[in-house]
Amino acid sequence: MTFMVSEIYNRRMADFIEFIDVYKSFGERQILDGVSFKVKKGETFAILGPSGTGKTVTLTHVVGLLKPDSGRIIVDGEDITDMTERQLAPIRRKVQLVFQSGALFDSMTVAENVGFPLVDMGLPFDEIERRVQEKLRLVEIEDIADLLPSELSTGIKRSVAIARALAADPQAILYDEPTTMVDPLISQTINNLIRKMQKQLGMTQMVVTHDIANCAEKVADHVALLDKGKFVFVGTLPELYSSKVPVVAEFVEEDRIRFEKDQEYA
Q1: What is the CATH number of the domain that holds 160?
Q2: How far apart are CA 113 and CA 118, in angstroms?
Q3: Label partner for 70 (CA 20 to 30 A): which of 36, 185, 223, 230?
């Protein structure tokens, strides 16, 4: 495992997630074209890019839902590239994926949704109830425990999905477009939650988003821009904003224009 000095918390950190020259295509369409990057333990790493560039595909590789055509994927020091479903089970408890839709069970209450992974793990009822209440309080939604998903807004559904991801006490959480299609207030709430998970729990996190100003700027320690299957930029937000690479500068400018328009209508 490679070690490096991280500025986060001023202590040495290991790389928790690493992609090494990863390729993935669907038919003739090349989605990932030799992608390599590292996410240090305890940091929040955002992958930027327009819709359809392979951001979500990258996330799903981290938990083995997709396999690369070539290249290697390392999670917490383990090469998961060729793992079977059985071998991946502990990895998926360690690394939770929060889908854009929330993927909640419509017939279950909020509390039942949060507790579902724990039931599947065979934990006793008292422990499940304790963990559910703990995670609902952490995400600040304990007052909606008895509601059904149909009674919730899109943003609150994502908060429930975060609570459910936390229920298994993971070491990392992956977020797929967490602030898309929610109002600015809920977007701020979700961003605050993501930062809280890092600062309070030391959580390693990956966020995929097309939105710099309303998401990545609020949560990320490092960002990467995915374009045509390749990372054309990896670095900090100040480095992103000062980049002279044409495709990077263009993406930043488009985000600025979109943000200013959103502010006009807010």
Answers
A1: 3.40.50.300
A2: 10
A3: 223
The string of pLDDT tens digits covering residues 131-170 is 999 999 999 999 999 999 999 988 899 999 999 999 989 9
| Least reliable range by pLDDT among 2-11, 81-90, 200-209 | 2-11
Count of domains for the chain: 1
> Residue 128: which domain range?
3-265
Q: How far apart are CA 80 and CA 30, in angstroms?
A: 22
> Which pLDDT tens digit goes with each residue over 43-72?
999 999 988 889 999 999 999 999 999 999
**12-26 vs 29-40, strand pairing mode:** antiparallel
Which residues, at least 6 apart from 56, have a Cβ–Cβ distance to it below 8 Å? 100, 176, 177, 208
pTM over 0.85: yes
Q: What gap in Å lies between CA 16 and CA 7, rounded to an integer?
A: 15
